[in-house]
Design goal:
213 residues; alpha+beta; 38% helix; globular; binds zinc ion
């Protein structure tokens, strides 16, 4: 895909992120990998108003170019692209249920087999660090170890995938799981699937191309 088409897809993904209810206002951000680094949504502009030239290009070394300032969270996007060759795109959202759990500092355990969609037996919650800092980037990367998604304490969530479509789909899935876990917690202690069962599920997900119904 050429860079102009990628800019269009980033804008469409950011708009879709809000339309589908996993983000509100300008709090989230979206990026996609390029040859030299990545493209990311700018800070402070509504997604609906974004033009191709508003999308900011950043190199793997962290040098930004463009008309706008990049999202304040560009550091963790950069560090994820450098550390994770499987990351072709990243969606960061302040979705309500994932963020609510993150405000309690709670991981999402294997209360449902679909937790495996994020790549492992749980979806971790990274400890709190101030937005935009290297500290936040470091703890997010640690929480993403062996996973394609994590929660960020008192903040939100990150989902990554091979494409913008895959990243957004995962973010939607993580928010659905967070809502289900939240609701189950209202009336009791959810049963957590065993490690042995989750090993079976993770194996099946590999052969289903990471998507199962
Ligand atoms: Zn954020």
């Amino acid at each position: 895909m050429n860079e102009d088409a990628l800019r269009a897809e980033i804008i469409a993904t950011a708009i879709r992120m809000n339309e589908c209810g996993i983000n509100r206002g300008k709090s989230g951000n979206v990026s996609a990998r390029t040859q030299a680094g990545f493209l990311i949504t700018p800070t402070g502009l509504t997604y609906q108003s974004l033009l191709h030239e508003d999308i900011v290009a950043i190199t793997f070394a962290g040098e930004a170019s463009g008309l706008r300032l990049p999202s304040s969270e560009w550091r963790f996007h950069r560090d994820i692209y450098v550390a994770r060759p499987d990351a072709g795109a990243i969606v960061h959202a302040h979705s309500s249920f994932a963020t609510s759990l993150a405000c309690l500092g709670r991981d999402i355990p294997a209360f449902h087999y679909m937790v495996a969609v994020a790549g492992g037996k749980d979806i971790r919650c990274a400890p709190y660090a101030t937005f935009g800092t290297q500290d936040l980037s470091d703890i997010a990367l640690a929480a993403l170890s062996g996973r394609r998604a994590c929660l960020l304490a008192n903040h939100g969530m990150i989902a990554l995938g091979g494409s913008l479509e895959a990243s957004l789909a995962l973010a939607i899935e993580v928010e659905a799981l967070a809502e289900q876990y939240w609701r189950a917690l209202q009336i009791g202690v959810p049963n957590v699937l065993s490690d042995a069962e989750m090993n079976i599920v993770l194996e099946k997900f590999k052969s289903y191309g990471q998507r199962a119904g």
